[in-house]
């Protein structure tokens, strides 16, 4: 049975500890060989844009750009369709490797066998 972890992160700079926890858990899971799908929603949507993760700071936390790179290397990052639209973000705007998809895709991912889902 394949183990997959789907993480939906809603927090951004508005809740830095919660945001950092989500990205850290995702990066550690990828490094551990777990299939990871990280969903950017709400305020975390901004991290789909080039350079935005570099603006994020949290003392004693791994740099967000490094975590995102690690996740993209071995996992998948998805920006919520509605969240992107509300922020006027298009596929042409996002970091290479980030896809834009909606609730139907999210539900399909979390309903798979062997899937664990977390929301931050």
Give a brief outline of the structure.
The protein is α/β, with parallel strands linked by helices and 120 residues long. It is built from four helices and five strands, in the order E-H-E-H-E-H-E-H-E.
Describe the structure.
With 120 residues, the protein is α/β, with parallel strands linked by helices. The chain has a single domain, classed as DsrEFH-like (Hypothetical Protein Ychn, Chain: A, 3-Layer(aba) Sandwich). It contains four helices and five strands; from the N terminus they run βαβαβαβαβ. Helix 1 links the parallel strand 1 and strand 2. Helix 1 runs parallel beside helix 2. The relative contact order is 0.25. The mean pLDDT is 96.
In terms of topology, how is this protein built?
Elements: E1 4-9, H1 16-31, E2 35-40, H2 64-74, E3 76-80, H3 81-86, E4 98-101, H4 103-110, E5 115-119
Parallel strand pairs: 1-2, 1-5, 2-3, 3-4
Helix pairs in contact: 1-2
Quickly list its features.
120 residues, alpha/beta, Hypothetical Protein Ychn, Chain: A, five-stranded parallel β-sheet, globular, DsrEFH-like, Sulfur reduction protein DsrE, Sulphur_relay_DsrE/F-like
């Amino acid at each position: 049975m394949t183990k997959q972890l789907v993480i939906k992160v809603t927090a951004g700079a508005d809740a830095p500890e919660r945001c950092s926890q989500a990205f850290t858990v995702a990066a550690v899971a990828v490094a551990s060989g777990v299939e990871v799908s990280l969903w950017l929603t709400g305020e975390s949507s901004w991290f789909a844009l080039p350079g935005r993760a570099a603006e994020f700071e949290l003392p004693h936390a791994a740099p967000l750009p490094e975590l995102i790179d690690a996740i993209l290397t071995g996992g998948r990052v998805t920006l919520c369709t509605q969240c992107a639209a509300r922020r006027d973000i298009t596929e042409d705007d996002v970091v290479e490797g980030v896809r834009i998809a909606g609730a139907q895709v999210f539900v399909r991912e979390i309903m798979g066998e062997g899937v664990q889902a977390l929301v931050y």
